[in-house]
């Protein structure tokens, strides 16, 4: 055995796999993983960890292992996103399952010496319990991981996403084999219906039902599409799945194709995801080389192939009809429905479109059965859901929990609560098409219908946590700015209506709000929701409406009192230091970029408003909210 830190694949020469070959490869993988005296170093290699230096850490690790003559006993594997993005770069030592965090290249010599040579943990690099400050060395004991149920993310952090052998070793393509060799198209759809899987892209439409519609549509040419055009602010679930486990998505597409008798599929992925595009392309080539894509897959007589179509990053192209027009080479704009894509989709042919997370579940459902998947969750929302947890929360990262889990558990038990002991104000769920859920409703469970009852939507799974210093008027303005910018302009309600909404919110944040503005916002929201052409426009007002529903007093304060209770709208701040709150620490003085603040030790700071440029630096720096 040699150090394996490369992306080489044993399948460079064309070879057609059989079901027996899959079994042999699984056994080989298991033998390799559990070989005596062999260690496996899984180092995170998603976009987030690349940004924080994991490539340099990996390169140093390769050098140190080679320099110490450990190449025969250590396998280095660059994985996709591990999930705990707040602590990257990360590293997991198998079989001991020791978890190291926040690594730098200079930490590697000590880590190799202690952990790999002497078998001793490097305590300073271990995760520590935030309360007790005691180290928690083992991966499975860390609350962030221990409280999750990784079904969709079952391979994150433990396989090389550029190795089909690793994927097959983890039961890869067994679901495909069962679907192609043991099941009829009808029984595949029935298994999906039994599973209760609903589309994870946002709408929550039953996946099996969508497949059934397409299956029953007449036509010799049909298509399977994967929507990887993830564009919600704060969302990175689909990108991470593609980066960490691309073969799982391909499997889902193959099985879907078999269900509706399609021979061609497309993965529509935004070009802003270069690592995901690269790894998916590698996975496609590997699958073709092994006969898992293309002609006569696994000897089943079924043909299916996949291509990647790179989008330019337009949010509206996440809408299914706009996505299809984009693949057709036209401007990505939606069209009215019906006809629905299951009857007339890509190039007017029956088409099914599922997002990345939905497809990544399919092979597991085929392998374990629909009843197995439906055994977890609530009455109408089955299985698990992946969330991208971000914002004002300690443990930023990917979280997968069973449907029915309280939102509070995600934020506090897994997310570790709010930094700096501040209070939670709301969670924006579902991105710009979603809504904010205030602290009072944080015990709502993760369920499509229950989330809708409190004014939000499940969406694709973006969960942005906001603390008590968040201005909800400004938050609504932010999301409207995004929506207005991303509107394709085809229909007037979305093009002009969201522009008028944004102008109103900007006016209110600037301290120029007037009586009647709130009512006008509500009237516009109702009009846009009822008359916009596609989902983008129909849900554009959700952030505004949910903010008005729960935080109307903040809108009133901006308009009537010309005050921003959260102190986020610079135009409504006085930029004076509250002497009662000031602890004389001088942090505002140290932060001010224009020297507008006078301060001496043990003295209250003073802001010179003639020099102050209202940049908010002092506000951000003050830990005592002493800037008014």
TrEMBL record:
The positions making up the signal sequence are none
Listed GO MF terms = 4 iron, 4 sulfur cluster binding; FMN binding; metal ion binding; NADH dehydrogenase (ubiquinone) activity
- Is Isomerase among this UniProt entry's keywords? no
SUPFAM superfamilies annotated for this entry?
4Fe-4S ferredoxins, Nqo1 FMN-binding domain-like, Nqo1 middle domain-like, Nqo1C-terminal domain-like, Thioredoxin-like
Indicate what this protein is called per its UniProt record. NADH dehydrogenase
Q: Which residues form the 4Fe-4S ferredoxin-type domain?
A: 573-602, 603-628
User: At the top level of its lineage, which domain of life is listed?
Assistant: Bacteria
Q: Gene3D superfamilies in the record, alphabetically?
A: 3.10.20.600, 3.30.70.20, 6.10.250.1450, Glutaredoxin (3.40.30.10), NADH-ubiquinone oxidoreductase 51kDa subunit (3.40.50.11540), NADH-ubiquinone oxidoreductase 51kDa subunit, iron-sulphur binding domain (1.20.1440.230)
Pfam families, sorted: 2Fe-2S_thioredx (PF01257), Complex1_51K (PF01512), Fer4_21 (PF14697), NADH_4Fe-4S (PF10589)
Q: Which SMART domains match?
A: NADH_4Fe-4S
Biological source species: Desulfovibrio subterraneus
Family classification: Belongs to the complex I 51 kDa subunit family.
Q: Which UniProt keywords apply?
A: 4Fe-4S, Iron, Iron-sulfur, Metal-binding
């Amino acid at each position: 055995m040699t150090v394996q830190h490369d992306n080489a694949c044993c399948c460079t020469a064309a070879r057609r796999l059989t079901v027996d070959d899959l079994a042999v490869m699984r056994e080989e993988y298991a033998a390799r993983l559990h070989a005596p005296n062999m260690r496996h170093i899984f180092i995170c290699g998603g976009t987030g960890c690349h940004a924080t230096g994991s490539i340099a850490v990996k390169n140093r690790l390769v050098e140190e292992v080679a320099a110490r003559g450990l190449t025969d006993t250590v396998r280095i594997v660059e994985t996709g996103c591990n999930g705990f993005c707040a602590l990257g770069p990360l590293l997991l030592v198998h079989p001991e399952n020791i978890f190291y965090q926040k690594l730098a290249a200079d930490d590697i010599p000590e880590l190799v010496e202690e952990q790999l040579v002497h078998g001793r943990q490097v305590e300073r690099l271990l995760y520590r319990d935030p309360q007790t400050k005691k180290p928690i060395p083992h991966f499975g004991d860390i609350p962030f991981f221990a409280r999750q149920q990784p079904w969709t993310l079952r391979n994150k952090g433990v396989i090389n996403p550029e190795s089909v052998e690793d994927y097959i070793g983890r039961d890869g393509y067994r679901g495909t084999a069962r679907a192609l060799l043991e099941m009829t198209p009808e029984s595949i759809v029935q298994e999906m219906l039994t599973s209760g899987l609903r589309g994870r892209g946002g709408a929550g439409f039953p996946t099996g039902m969508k497949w059934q519609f397409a299956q029953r549509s007449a036509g010799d040419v049909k298509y399977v599409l994967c929507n990887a055009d993830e564009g919600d602010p704060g969302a990175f679930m689909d990108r991470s799945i593609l980066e960490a486990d691309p073969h799982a998505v391909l499997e889902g597409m193959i099985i879907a194709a078999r269900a509706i008798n399609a021979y061609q599929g497309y993965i529509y992925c935004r070009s802003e995801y270069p690592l995901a595009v690269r790894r998916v392309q590698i996975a496609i080539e590997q699958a073709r080389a092994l006969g898992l894509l293309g002609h006569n897959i696994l000897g089943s007589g079924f043909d299916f192939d996949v291509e990647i179509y790179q989008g330019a990053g337009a949010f509206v192209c996440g809408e299914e009809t706009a996505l299809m027009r984009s693949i057709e080479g036209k401007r990505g704009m939606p069209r009215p429905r019906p006809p629905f894509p299951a009857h007339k989709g890509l190039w007017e042919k029956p088409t099914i479109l599922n997002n990345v997370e939905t497809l990544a579940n399919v092979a597991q459902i085929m392998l374990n059965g629909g009843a197995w998947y439906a055994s977890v969750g609530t009455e109408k929302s089955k299985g698990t859901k992946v969330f991208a947890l971000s914002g004002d929360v300690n443990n930023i990262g990917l979280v997968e929990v069973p449907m029915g889990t309280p939102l509070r558990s995600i934020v506090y038990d897994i997310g570790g609560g709010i930094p700096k002991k501040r209070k939670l104000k709301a969670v924006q769920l579902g991105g710009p098409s979603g809504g904010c859920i205030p602290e009072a409703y944080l015990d709502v469970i993760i369920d499509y219908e229950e989330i809708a009852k409190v004014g939000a939507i499940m969406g694709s799974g973006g969960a942005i946590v906001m603390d008590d210093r968040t201005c909800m008027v400004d938050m609504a303005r932010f999301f409207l700015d995004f929506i207005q910018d991303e509107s394709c302009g085809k229909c007037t309600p979305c093009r002009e209506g969201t522009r008028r909404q944004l102008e109103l919110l900007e006016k209110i944040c600037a301290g120029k709000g007037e009586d009647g503005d709130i009512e006008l916002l509500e009237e516009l929201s109702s009009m846009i929701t009822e008359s916009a052409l596609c989902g983008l426009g129909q849900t554009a007002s959700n952030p505004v409406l949910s903010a008005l529903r729960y935080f109307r007093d903040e809108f009133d304060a901006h308009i009537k009192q010309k005050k921003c209770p959260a102190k986020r709208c610079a135009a409504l701040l006085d930029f004076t230091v509250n002497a009662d709150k000031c602890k004389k620490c001088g942090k505002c003085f140290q932060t001010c970029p224009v020297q507008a603040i006078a301060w001496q030790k043990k003295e209250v700071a003073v802001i010179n408003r003639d020099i102050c440029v209202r940049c908010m630096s002092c506000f951000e720096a003050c830990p005592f909210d002493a800037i008014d």
